[in-house]
Amino acid sequence: xxxxxxxxxxxxxxxxxxxxxxxxxxxxxxxxxxxxxxxxxxxxxxxxxxxxxxxxxxxxxxxxxxxxxxxxxxxxxxxxxxxxxxxxxxxxxxxxxxxxxxxxxxxxxxxxxxxxxxxxxxxxxx
Length: 126
Ligand SMILES: *[C@@H]1O[C@H](CO)[C@@H](O)[C@H](O)[C@H]1NC(C)=O
Ligand SMILES: *[C@@H]1O[C@H](CO)[C@@H](O)[C@H](O)[C@H]1NC(C)=O
Ligand SMILES: *[C@@H]1O[C@H](CO)[C@@H](O)[C@H](O)[C@H]1NC(C)=O
Hints:
It contains one helix and ten strands; from the N terminus they run H-E-E-E-E-E-E-E-E-E-E. By secondary structure, it is α+β, with helices and mostly antiparallel strands. It has one domain: Immunoglobulin-like, CATH 2.60.40. A hairpin with a 2-residue loop joins strand 4 and strand 5. One 2-acetamido-2-deoxy-beta-D-glucopyranose binds at residues 75-76. This is Yeast cell wall synthesis Kre9/Knh1-like N-terminal domain-containing protein. Keywords: Signal. It comes from Guyanagaster necrorhizus. InterPro entries: Kre9/Knh1-like_N (IPR018466).
């Protein structure tokens, strides 16, 4: 088989698949629950255990990615390691241990599911 024929065959196979799969993707809802705690009144001490909570009052019927993860963000920089991961985004809360990070009042948690939502800025101290 020559190349033209080969690629024509590949496109003939793939194109209908991509057309078919598109509506399935579009019908799923991107779920971005709002983080409730920590909020701007929160003060976390390094090494302590804290609870992150978020609003699960309005989940869509179908969630693209039900597994959540949480990262810390300082200023406009999100840390590259997960604080915790592998929990259900429908749990509404999860406990985390505060890692040894630079103290500051511009920390946020980022909750990732389909997408990310940030908490308000809060304080981490030693
Ligand atoms: C977080 O969720 C709230 C409530 O749905 C929304 O108003 C806010 O824009 C979201 N923030 C981000 C960074 O996605
Ligand atoms: C933060 O959450 C606490 C506990 O729910 C609440 O008492 C406090 O008013 C909240 N602070 C802000 C700024 O929303
Ligand atoms: C993050 O903040 C710093 C300091 O305010 C600024 O210099 C930098 O451009 C910001 N980066 C982004 C991606 O916004």
